[in-house]
Amino acid sequence: MRMGVDVGGTNTDAVLMDGTKVVGWFKTPTTPDVTTGITTAIKTALEQTKVPTDQIQAVMIGTTHFTNAVVERKRLMKTAAVRLGLPATEALPPMVDWPPDLRETIGDHKYLVHGGHEFDGREISPLDEKEIREVAKDIKSKGIRAVAISAVFSPVNSFFEEQAAEIIQNEIPDVSISLSHEIGRMGLLERENAAVLNACLGDLAKAIVESFRKALEEMKIDAPFYLSQNDGTLMSAEYAEKYPVLTFASGPTNSMRGAAFLSGAKDAMVVDIGGTTSDVGMLLRGFPREASVAVDIGGVRTNFRMPDVYSFGLGGGSIISEEPLRIGPQSVGYELTTKGLVFGGSVLTATDIAVAGGLADIGDPGPVKHLDATLVREALDEMQALVETAVDRMKTSVEPIPLILVGGGIILVSRKVEGVSEMVKPEHFPVANAIGAAIAQVGGETDRIFALAEIPRDEALAQAKQEASDKVKAAGADEETITIVDIEEIPLSYLPSNAVRIRAKAVGDLALE
Amino acid sequence: MRLLHPENVEDIALGAAVLGTGGGGDPYIGKLMGIQAIREFGPVTLLSLDEIDDDALIVPTAMMGAPTVMVEKLPKGDEIIKAFQALESYLGQKITATMSAEAGGLNSVTPLTVAARLRLPMVDCDGMGRAFPELQMVTATLYGISATPFAMGDEKGNNAILNTINNRWTERFARSLTIDMGCTALIACYATKGKELKQWGVPNTMTLVEKIGRTIREARKSNINVVKAVREVVGGFQIFKGKIVDVQRRTEAGFAKGEAVFEGVDEYASQTLKLQFQNENLVAMLDGEAVVSVPDLITVLETESGEPITTEALRYGFRVTVLGIPCNEKWRTPEGLAVVGPHYFGYDIEYVPVEKRYG
């Protein structure tokens, strides 16, 4: 059996699954330290289902530890950013566009050296080993143990980044190195930013992995554990120590993956209505559509694969204010069960409106009987409109598509949403996110530019697919289950020699023992 | 005269997207470079056209190449300085000021770097009053000013000076060299005397884009209607309000061409607007009739946030308001229309100034 856990802004959910069957689940408020909430959720789910711990084969955890650390600027390492690109790129050194407080937190240690490639594979300048060794010595003398390396056009040719890593590793044996081409995409500053964020989370990643290991040990769960990545696939504990940044935004991804699994739909819109906010995303071939523009994390622009999610302030705990009528964005959050009218509290919430309108039978309907019928109707209309606008915003064409509703707050939507072919409220909808974590597969992707003047298109595509499949295998997948789930070709305008950027993504089932 | 500080540059970059009319490139990199240079070398002096001496030598600066490459291979910062020095020694004369070739998009902020580093003033004008895709599409062309001697430089220290028989040839050679330079180059061209610039320059456009940026920023802060505020500050007309229902794209000869279809709401319910673009927005057709076309500006703003939407970002579901903005008078002459009118872009329609229809 698998245990899936997902940490949300309001609640932490755990679900126990036997193959494709949901055995049981438990929801508990998210704690400030995150780990306590995770432990409570797992423990209670096990107690309630009476499943012995030796039945657990794997634990999958979707956590917000790392996003929180960046946003709160806590537990981040001093980090050196080394960029290969001189004489180009000098005008804008690493971390130039960071919020000053975050830059100072990690030390503002930046080094520009020679190297890097042109768009067509020519070298901008040769790599200078001596120069990099000098940089490594300086980093060492400052006691810095986290290094991010970036090189111009490294998504096309990663050789220089790898060379530099080897030289630095030789000088500073206990250093941990993040390479930009393994994390981000085209766009030097954004890719480099993602690598620096990844590097500065190194110690925290080790500590979190260790605390999970300990917590599972204390619960007597002797099974490997994995962390959810933001593309809907898993990473091993060892991998997570190296790439903590890939957990960012795994929450919305997990709910979308869970929604796909519960409904059986591959191409659909998913709305996850939580306690405070709702997330809308689009499923393509069973995976979340990825954001194509820069994504801001704690004030830093990054461009690594993140789900394309639109969030808006509607949840079960949204506070309703009258005259003028306003829904949210303030929310009572996890205190809904004490502050909402139907729970004996004194705050009018979206859940109270749903109960007054007869959409849900929760708590005590007594306190909402006196509510003005016009207010209830208008508030319900407004909530419906919020969902409809968000869904339409995320659609890619006028064609109606299925809509899957998940999350604790879906009682707020009663009528058919416009532009939607069917509406599905699957079983176990309140814990779709934890289910998404539990059922996740392992994945791998490649994203680089091919010059079609030098290599035929078919060969380029085949090469990209092979690279992606190899990465899935290396991540621990059962080889026979590996499939290509996405391949995208983007012709690059203004570029000669028919340059095309190819992105291939493969997934496979986790090889369970 | 006044000084440009980093906060002015932020506003200029934000406002430049409105005059970019969907194209012109993302000003992000140029903005960061400008701010960085000002922090290091001090604020840039902005002079109005009438503060320029008649015999001053002004050279516009711009970036040329593929925006997709520019975000990867960032500039060194002194490319343009070397090109300026080469141009000065060729002309045997000191350059006294620089300016923006196009007020829309990336190149609105490009000259800030050279201005700050060489402590040269920047003139409050440009050669388009908007963004256009080709080098010869500047008002200087209409006054017989040659793009050459044309200087360009790369980060390695290479630079070249071109002399050509007309501005179209300059465009052609410069593009070839840009590819060899790694698909990005900094260029300096249309060297001009103060007396001539007073004739061809589109005046006060830096101040205008800065004002647009400030208006957007302040309207957002005080929660007032951003679209209306922008329309008022640019003196434009609302030509449509609706939702994007379809976008078709294709790449032709290195240009991103396509068409977006908008379905009307409110007073435009049951109407359809089609927007045709080639890097920039070119022609807006309302129920089959061309209502706004180049050289007038067509700008698409997200209705709620007022965020200008580039042609690359157009996609299904956006709630948008489309503005038509009158272009500079110089483009409305027969000579101007021959360079940037609908016929040049392959449309068989007659240009009608936007205010004739909506004013």
Q: Could you list some keywords that capture this structure?
A:
heterodimer; A: 513 residues; alpha/beta; Rossmann fold; 9-stranded mixed β-sheet; 14 helices; 23 strands; 32% helix; B: 359 residues; alpha+beta; CV3147-like fold; globular
Short description:
The complex is a heterodimer of chains A (513) and B (359). Chain A has 513 residues and is of the alpha/beta class.
Helix content of chain A: 25-40%
**Broad CATH class of the largest domain in chain B:** Alpha Beta
Which strand-content bin applies to the residues of chain B?
25-35%
CATH homolog superfamily of the largest domain in chain B: CV3147-like domain
Structural class of chain B: alpha+beta
Helix content of chain B: 25-40%
Shape of chain A: globular
Number of helices of chain A: 14
Stretches of chain A where pLDDT is under 50 for at least 5 consecutive residues are none
SSE blueprint:
The complex is a heterodimer of chains A (513) and B (359).
Chain A: E1 2-7, E2 11-18, E3 21-29, H1 35-49, E4 58-62, H2 65-72, E5 79-86, H3 100-106, E6 109-114, H4 129-141, E7 146-151, H5 159-171, E8 176-179, H6 188-200, H7 202-218, E9 225-228, E10 233-236, H8 237-242, H9 250-263, E11 268-273, E12 278-284, E13 287-288, E14 295-297, E15 300-302, E16 310-312, E17 318-321, E18 326-331, H10 336-339, H11 350-356, H12 373-394, E19 401-406, E20 420-424, H13 432-438, E21 441-451, H14 457-474, E22 483-491, E23 499-508
Helix pairs in contact in A: 4-5, 9-13, 11-12
Chain B: E1 2-4, H1 6-19, H2 28-41, E2 44-47, E3 57-65, H3 67-70, H4 79-91, E4 97-100, H5 111-118, E5 122-123, E6 125-126, H6 139-142, E7 150-153, E8 159-162, H7 167-180, E9 184-188, E10 192-193, H8 194-200, E11 202-203, H9 205-221, H10 226-234, E12 237-252, E13 255-264, E14 272-278, E15 280-286, E16 289-293, E17 297-302, E18 319-325, H11 334-340, H12 354-358
Helix pairs in contact in B: 1-2, 1-9, 2-5, 9-10
